[in-house]
Amino acid sequence: MKQYTNTNLINGLFSGTYYTIWNDPDNIFYGDGDNPDQYEYFQMKDIAQGYQDYKHIILEALQEISKNIKNIKVIGSYSPREYNFSTDVIEFELTVNKGVFQDIQKQLENDKDFTQYLKDNYTSYDGFISFTPNNPEEIFQALNDITHPEHDQAFGACISYLLYKNRKSDDPYSTIELDMYEKLSSDGYATYEDVED
């Protein structure tokens, strides 16, 4: 079966291009002796293509969560006209066996840190309306019912937490995103632009 998701629902895969490692000239100087005043710049179409070309990096991390995740494919990307309320998004189609939802629940149902994670990240407050349940009972109900209106959000919240839990460093970017960034940088997916004075 197909499970559709995106980097807005699953944290840790891609943080967007607005003042992140992908495009911030204040933080990314890659000049050499010939071009000391250039910085690396990524366009969304190239990032999306790179994520498709190196999807195995993401798939390996997802399969550590569940072997019932069989494949991943980039099916699109989106960049907002303005970055006031949203950021760039990469959209994915996952091929999964139905047992993936039980695999996820089994790992999380007795995890007290997961309960706190939901409360901290998905509780509505002034200026933020959450469309994701903020407690395990409602998350698991939505997760295991593919017709539930909050199924995709529940799946994303669970995967986000498990990727975060499996992260191997304290860097603000997940090891997945860093791996993708380094791979796309070294393999020529970025362009170079002069740094303005």
Beta-strand percent range: 15-25%
* Global geometry: globular
Q: How many whole angstroms does the radius of gyration measure?
A: 18 Å
Total helix count?
7
Walk across the major sheet and give the strand order. Answer: 1-4-3
Helix content: 25-40%
How far the N terminus sits from the C terminus, by CA atoms, comes to: 52 Å
**Biggest sheet character:** 3 strands, antiparallel
- Order of secondary-structure elements: EEHHEEHHHHHE
Which structural class do the helices and strands define? alpha+beta
Overall mean confidence score, pLDDT? 89
Show unreliable segments: none
* Number of distinct beta strands: 5
Report on this model:
The model has no long low-confidence stretch (mean pLDDT 89). The chain has 197 residues and is of the alpha+beta class. The chain has helices at 44-53, 55-65, 99-108, 112-122, 136-143, 151-166, 175-186; strands at 2-6, 38-41, 69-78, 89-96, 191-194. The strands form two sheets. A three-stranded antiparallel sheet has the order 1-4-3. A two-stranded antiparallel sheet has the order 2-5. The longest helix has 16 residues, at 151-166. It is 40% helix and 16% strand. Helix 5 (136-143) crosses helix 6.
Topology:
Layout: E1 2-6, E2 38-41, H1 44-53, H2 55-65, E3 69-78, E4 89-96, H3 99-108, H4 112-122, H5 136-143, H6 151-166, H7 175-186, E5 191-194
Helix pairs in contact: 5-6
